[in-house]
């Protein structure tokens, strides 16, 4: 497998990276400070229901309501890779690659106008992605294709080679902006319904390079001392054009954009202290169109100007229930299912999934007095990923999350929300018998990757009613 093929696989997966964390492989469901402080909001009848449970907005008072929130999210993505050729020149066969993703500004706006039985509502948020990830040392999938060069040259060409070096770098950003509009209607005191749509606008960008590959072959005429040499120059001199192509510098500077619309339907049931909300978001079918900056497409057709790549946003079903146990204590649970396998991805990557993502949520809210309330919640996320689906640049692994915070009634019509949310991920170990191919042979070497992530989110928001 050539290096440009490896680069293609890794770069294409970058557009699937999600930075804010709550939700499926591509979708963010934490759209307000209310979620961060309580987590289970699928049966909400407050203004954040404009996203979580729009049919429940009929329980608001008549008038205009809106809420503005900002989240600051910080993640690390760590890949511990073990591959014997990494140990060239006395090094360690296990290397650590760390990417950092930051999203200090992830705003969202919820709005609703209620009059009688009708509610007109809207939501604007970063519904997918929301930040930038950087791997300053590149990735194992890049370096492994260089690390096998000493093996190939020593065993296949009879040129003792023990060292290599490469400059690698990767950074990428992913934003999906969602604008949702719709209307709710109170059928009677217990039932209400919602119909609307969301316009999703995708804006992805990534930069990366593999360059300055060097090796130290002991060649009796060209390099008798085994000094480090440019791999391109050496293979050119000895007449190995296939190897010249393999080690040539490659650089990507690319933007991708696209848009699509998804219908949304919702239902709400309310009886005394019990409220149940349900929502179904249809799949957003869309492609992203490539735009290459300064011609830096790495020589890959998929990154040339005007090329389209599938980037569907999966359908989502959510349902939740809340119960007012006492006048002060509210309990809530929720469930989300993302139909990831039915959403088309680049290179039909969705076929490598075992199924969709499932999330289970629970939360409690306690009102201390007229001014203050506190809340906390938890979420368990289980993805339908497989070893074949995961790559070192884009990986979604099972997790547990905790959110806590509170709210202050600043005045009769103004409420301040604040929350903190963190996620604990389960390690995922991937053994790969075809980790990298030795050039000019049909031999593959095995390797292992261990994936791990960390995630922390802080949010603050303010609600207004008029």
Number of DSSP strand runs: 18
Mean pLDDT: 88
| C-alpha end-to-end distance | 63 Å
Q: Tell me about the largest β-sheet.
A: 14 strands, antiparallel, barrel
What structural class should be given to the helix and strand makeup?
mainly beta
What order do the helices and strands follow? HHHEEEHHEEEHHEEEEEEEEEEEE
State Rg: 26 Å
Percent of sequence in beta strands: over 45%
Give the strand line-up of the largest sheet.
Answer: 1-2-3-4-5-7-8-11-12-13-14-15-16-18
**What's the overall geometry?**
elongated
Assign a percent range to the helix content.
10-25%
Our count of helices gives 7
List low-pLDDT spans: 1-18
Textual characterization of the structure:
This protein has 466 residues and is mainly beta. The chain has helices at residues 3-14, 33-38, 49-52, 140-147, 149-156, 231-237, 241-247; strands at residues 63-82, 94-115, 118-135, 164-186, 191-215, 229-230, 250-271, 274-281, 287-297, 308-310, 316-324, 329-338, 357-367, 372-382, 399-411, 414-425, 428-437, 444-465. A 14-stranded antiparallel β-barrel has the order 1-2-3-4-5-7-8-11-12-13-14-15-16-18. Strand 13 (357-367) and strand 14 (372-382) form a beta hairpin. Helix 1 (3-14) runs antiparallel to helix 4 and helix 6 (231-237) packs antiparallel against helix 7 (241-247). The chain starts with a helix and ends with a strand.
């Amino acid at each position: 497998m050539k290096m440009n093929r490896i680069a293609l696989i890794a770069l294409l997966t970058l557009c699937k990276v999600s930075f804010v964390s709550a939700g499926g492989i591509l979708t963010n469901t934490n759209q307000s400070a209310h979620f961060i402080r309580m987590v289970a909001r699928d049966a909400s009848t407050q203004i954040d229901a404009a996203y979580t449970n729009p049919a429940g907005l009929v329980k608001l008072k008549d008038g205009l309501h809106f809420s503005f929130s900002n989240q600051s999210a910080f993640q690390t993505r760590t890949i511990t890779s073990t591959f014997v050729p990494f140990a060239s020149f006395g090094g360690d066969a296990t290397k650590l690659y760390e990417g950092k993703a930051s999203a200090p500004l992830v705003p969202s706006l919820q709005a609703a106008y209620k009059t009688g039985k009708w509610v007109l509502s809207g939501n604007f948020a970063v519904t997918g992605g929301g930040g930038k990830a950087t791997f300053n040392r590149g990735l194992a999938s890049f370096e492994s294709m260089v690390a096998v060069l000493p093996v190939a040259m020593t065993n296949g060409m009879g040129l003792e080679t023990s060292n290599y070096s490469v400059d690698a770098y990767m950074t990428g950003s992913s934003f999906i902006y969602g604008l949702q509009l719709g209307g709710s209607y109170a059928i009677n005191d217990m039932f209400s319904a919602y119909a609307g749509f969301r316009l999703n606008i995708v804006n992805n960008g990534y930069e990366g390079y593999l360059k300055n590959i060097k090796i130290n072959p002991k060649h009796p005429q060209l390099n008798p001392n085994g000094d480090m040499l440019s791999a391109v120059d050496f293979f050119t001199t000895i007449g190995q054009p296939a190897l010249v192509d393999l080690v040539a510098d490659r650089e990507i500077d690319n933007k991708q954009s696209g848009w699509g619309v998804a219908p949304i339907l919702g239902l709400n049931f309310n009886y005394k202290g019990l409220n149940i909300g349900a929502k179904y978001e249809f799949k957003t079918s869309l492609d992203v169109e490539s735009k290459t900056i300064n011609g830096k497409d790495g020589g890959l057709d998929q990154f040339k100007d005007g090329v389209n790549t599938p980037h569907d946003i999966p359908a989502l079903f959510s349902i939740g229930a809340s119960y007012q146990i006492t006048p002060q204590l509210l309990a809530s649970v929720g469930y989300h299912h993302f139909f990831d396998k039915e959403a088309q991805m680049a290179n039909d990557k969705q076929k490598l999934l075992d199924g969709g993502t499932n999330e289970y949520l629970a939360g409690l809210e306690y009102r201390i007095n007229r001014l203050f309330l506190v809340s906390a919640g938890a979420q368990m996320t289980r993805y339908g990923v497989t070893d074949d689906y995961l790559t070192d640049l884009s990986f979604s692994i099972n997790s547990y999350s905790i959110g806590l915070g509170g709210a202050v009634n600043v005045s009769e019509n103004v409420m301040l929300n604040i929350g903190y949310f963190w996620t604990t991920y389960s390690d995922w170990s991937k053994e790969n018998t075809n980790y990298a191919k030795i050039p000019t042979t049909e031999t593959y070497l095995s390797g292992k990757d261990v994936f791990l992530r960390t995630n922390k989110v802080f949010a603050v928001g303010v609600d207004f009613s008029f």
